[in-house]
């Protein structure tokens, strides 16, 4: 049996390993596969996407490697989708904006989760529970309690600081985006001054090239918009001329 404190250390370190792996997947692998610009994905500044860590820990705790793979697949997919749906809902309630939207995907639920994600989560759950986590447990425990508690404490401190910094940066995000909306209206009426056409501006927004536009946003805010372009979707209408400027 694994001692209680050893178990806590294993869970904390495993969380960060999966969170970093999720960041690598979203920020490096997916952009290469989809031929999109590589960017720092995720809510936090550091190379972690916590939802991956939370999902992996949930399925590794709830399910055993001895279970049938199809059982882990289905149940793990459900658990992961519940986490993603809940995360989307809570973040929208806090920040009054939709951070991601799967409405264009087939078989989605309120744009928060979709069938493609369900299948990926199910496959990931099987791989995590049956192959990765058992080996990961042994590798982490092999380093000893003292080393693991030091590493766990450092990781928790780093993510707490990162979370605090990120929340502080987003405190006035709503006001900043309102300023962006006004700037885009001005840009639309003064395109020649900035040497951009309306299509140029829209394409920059679509390709997440916010730093190329004369917008009143700081680097941390630009990072968030690149990671979650859904946040800026509504202001695209001002570039397209579909909204009433009044």
Provide tags for this entry.
mainly alpha, 2 domains, disordered C terminus, 10 helices, two-stranded antiparallel ribbon, 2 strands, 246 residues
Please sum up the structure shown:
The protein has 246 residues and is an all-alpha fold. Helix content is 68%, strand content 2%. The chain has helices at 4-34, 50-62, 69-95, 115-141, 145-170, 173-189, 191-194, 198-206, 219-227, 236-240, and strands spanning 108-109, 113-114.
How are the strands of the largest sheet arranged?
1-2
Q: Beta-strand level of the residues, as a percent range? A: under 5%
Average pLDDT for all residues = 82
- In which range does the helix fraction lie? 55-70%
Q: What is the general shape?
A: globular
How many beta-strand runs?
2
Which blocks of ≥5 consecutive residues have pLDDT under 50?
242-246
Structural class: mainly alpha
| Annotation field: number of helices | 10
Distance between the termini: 67 Å
Describe the structure.
- With 246 residues, the chain is an all-alpha fold.
- It folds into two domains: 4-169, no CATH class; 173-237, no CATH class.
- Helix content is 68%, strand content 2%.
- The protein has helices spanning 4-34, 50-62, 69-95, 115-141, 145-170, 173-189, 191-194, 198-206, 219-227, 236-240; strands at residues 108-109, 113-114.
- A two-stranded antiparallel sheet has the order 1-2.
- β1 (108-109) and β2 (113-114) form a beta hairpin.
- α1 crosses α4 and α2 runs antiparallel to α3.
- The model is unreliable at 242-246 (pLDDT under 50).
């Amino acid at each position: 049996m694994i001692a209680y404190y050893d178990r806590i250390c294993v869970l904390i370190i495993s969380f960060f390993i999966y969170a970093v792996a999720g960041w690598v997947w979203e920020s490096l692998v997916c952009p290469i596969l989809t031929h999109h610009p590589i960017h720092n994905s995720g809510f936090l500044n550091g190379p972690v996407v916590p939802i991956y860590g939370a999902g992996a820990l949930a399925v590794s705790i709830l399910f055993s490697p001895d279970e049938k793979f199809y059982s882990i697949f289905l149940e793990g997919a459900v658990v992961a989708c519940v986490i993603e749906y809940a995360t989307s809902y809570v973040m929208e309630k806090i920040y009054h904006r939709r951070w991601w939207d799967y409405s264009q995907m087939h078989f989605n639920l309120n744009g928060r989760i979709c069938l493609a994600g369900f299948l990926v989560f199910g496959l990931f759950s099987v791989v995590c529970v049956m192959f990765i986590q058992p080996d990961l447990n042994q590798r982490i425990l092999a380093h000893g309690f003292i080393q693991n508690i030091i590493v766990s404490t450092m990781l928790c401190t780093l993510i707490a600081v990162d979370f605090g910094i990120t929340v502080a940066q987003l405190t006035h995000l709503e006001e900043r985006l309102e300023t962006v909306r006004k700037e885009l209206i001005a840009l639309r009426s003064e395109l020649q001054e900035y040497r951009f056409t309306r299509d140029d501006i829209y394409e920059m927004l679509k390709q997440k090239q916010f730093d190329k536009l004369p917008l009143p946003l700081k680097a941390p805010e630009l990072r968030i918009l690149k990671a979650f372009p859904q946040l800026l979707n509504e202001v695209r209408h001002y570039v397209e001329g579909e909204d009433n400027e009044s």
